[in-house]
Amino acid sequence: MTAQPLYPLTLRLAGRDVLVVGGGPVAARRASGLIVADAIVTVVAPEVCAELADLIRSGAVTWVDRGYRAGDLDGKWLVHTATGDSRVDAAVRADAEESRVWCVDASDHDASAAWVPAVTRRHGVTIGVAAGGDPRRAMAVRDAVAAGIDDGTVAPFAAVPAPADRPRRADFPAGTVALVGGGPGDPDLITVRGRDLLAQADVVVADRLGPRTLLAGLSDRVTVIDVGKLPGHHPVPQDEINAILVRYAQAGHRVLRLKGGDPYVLGRGGEELEFCREAGVPVQVVPGVTSAISAPAVAGIPVTHRGVAAGFTVVTGHDQLADLPGGRDHTVVLLMGVSGLARSAATLADGARGDDCPVAIIEDAYGPGERVTVGTLAGICRQAAELGVRSPAVVVVGDVVRLGHHAHQHDSQLQPALTDHLTKGL
């Protein structure tokens, strides 16, 4: 069969609804890539693999727990199907064709209307290779081009000086790694030391939720490797991230791992440090401002306050909630907690906190989509659904919510209770 001509295209999917049909590792990889592109991702599958389960728990994707049905494509811009069942994939493909929705079919590249290229990034350049739908060939070509850029044999990168040709800082020498906490995303909230080291790096391995606007100001000589959005759901697996850090450091580069928040607060910084040390690569850690504290601060909510809350706990999963100490005087901060909000709210309401315990959800703190929603454990899920709350978001549970700027705007019942509580505390 004669190969059909193709039209290469790059899509801007930020804020657009896309669908992934299937719950296996291929579907997880496709979902991760869509998340990095800021798409609004829905996964339809009766079962999901561990990687997708992480994405669902984090709130990065919405999971519809069933098989594919006609009508699932309504309102979607793009669909990826990777069920492993050719009949289901063919049905999705046919519905997409009828609905004029672009469909990527992982099971049949010949019949697919669109393909996902093998992608990497070097020096601000995105390299995408399709190779006629052959993924192994595409990855081989991609890696060959990337290697040529790295060693300067591919123009116009031949003039890029080797790391040894550049000035060195005594505290960030060649062949070392710096794990830098970038804070919650605002470029002004990275530490002075973190920003200084960033300016000295040869290679930057970046998460999505750090201060990414700072990357645009880096020299063209710096290699920026984009490895994803949030801890636990990277398009590049964690073991590969670890290998990248070591590989570039052992090649004589100054490698900076730019992470959102703080490397040691649910950021897998400890794993990366351990891997580098085991490989004999020196590592330094630069703390960062964690979103667990800074996101509530945007809304005027302190995680502790004299007479209101003397301690707080930061968690990501649902399973830990039943064993948390204290009542509403012990603040609970949920990171990546949007997708599991219903279960989390029910568990916390069943304990000492009660269903009238105040809750705040802070979306996209310090970002253009910053929004604060305040309610109680009994009603927060309904509010979140009505408002379309989505990740990234931090959920705060406890009486400290009543101290926030937005409490009176969202639930007038919180204010009298706050007065009573503070009066009792005094």
From TrEMBL:
<dbReference type="GO" id="GO:0019354">
    <property type="term" value="P:siroheme biosynthetic process"/>
</dbReference>
<dbReference type="InterPro" id="IPR035996">
    <property type="entry name" value="4pyrrol_Methylase_sf"/>
</dbReference>
<dbReference type="InterPro" id="IPR000878">
    <property type="entry name" value="4pyrrol_Mease"/>
</dbReference>
<dbReference type="InterPro" id="IPR012409">
    <property type="entry name" value="Sirohaem_synth"/>
</dbReference>
<keyword id="KW-0511">Multifunctional enzyme</keyword>
<keyword id="KW-0560">Oxidoreductase</keyword>
<dbReference type="GO" id="GO:0032259">
    <property type="term" value="P:methylation"/>
</dbReference>
<keyword id="KW-0627">Porphyrin biosynthesis</keyword>
<dbReference type="InterPro" id="IPR014777">
    <property type="entry name" value="4pyrrole_Mease_sub1"/>
</dbReference>
<dbReference type="InterPro" id="IPR006366">
    <property type="entry name" value="CobA/CysG_C"/>
</dbReference>
<feature type="domain" description="Tetrapyrrole methylase">
    <location>
        <begin position="176"/>
        <end position="378"/>
    </location>
</feature>
<keyword id="KW-0808">Transferase</keyword>
<dbReference type="GO" id="GO:0051266">
    <property type="term" value="F:sirohydrochlorin ferrochelatase activity"/>
</dbReference>
<dbReference type="GO" id="GO:0009236">
    <property type="term" value="P:cobalamin biosynthetic process"/>
</dbReference>
<comment type="pathway">
    <text>Porphyrin-containing compound metabolism; siroheme biosynthesis; sirohydrochlorin from precorrin-2: step 1/1.</text>
</comment>
<feature type="active site" description="Proton donor">
    <location>
        <position position="229"/>
    </location>
</feature>
<dbReference type="Pfam" id="PF13241">
    <property type="entry name" value="NAD_binding_7"/>
</dbReference>
<dbReference type="InterPro" id="IPR036291">
    <property type="entry name" value="NAD(P)-bd_dom_sf"/>
</dbReference>
<dbReference type="InterPro" id="IPR050161">
    <property type="entry name" value="Siro_Cobalamin_biosynth"/>
</dbReference>
<protein>
    <submittedName>
        <fullName>Uroporphyrinogen-III C-methyltransferase</fullName>
        <ecNumber>2.1.1.107</ecNumber>
    </submittedName>
</protein>
<dbReference type="InterPro" id="IPR006367">
    <property type="entry name" value="Sirohaem_synthase_N"/>
</dbReference>
<feature type="active site" description="Proton acceptor">
    <location>
        <position position="207"/>
    </location>
</feature>
<keyword id="KW-0169">Cobalamin biosynthesis</keyword>
<dbReference type="GO" id="GO:0004851">
    <property type="term" value="F:uroporphyrin-III C-methyltransferase activity"/>
</dbReference>
<keyword id="KW-0520">NAD</keyword>
<keyword id="KW-0949">S-adenosyl-L-methionine</keyword>
<dbReference type="Pfam" id="PF00590">
    <property type="entry name" value="TP_methylase"/>
</dbReference>
<dbReference type="GO" id="GO:0051287">
    <property type="term" value="F:NAD binding"/>
</dbReference>
<keyword id="KW-0456">Lyase</keyword>
<keyword id="KW-0489">Methyltransferase</keyword>
<dbReference type="GO" id="GO:0043115">
    <property type="term" value="F:precorrin-2 dehydrogenase activity"/>
</dbReference>
<dbReference type="InterPro" id="IPR014776">
    <property type="entry name" value="4pyrrole_Mease_sub2"/>
</dbReference>
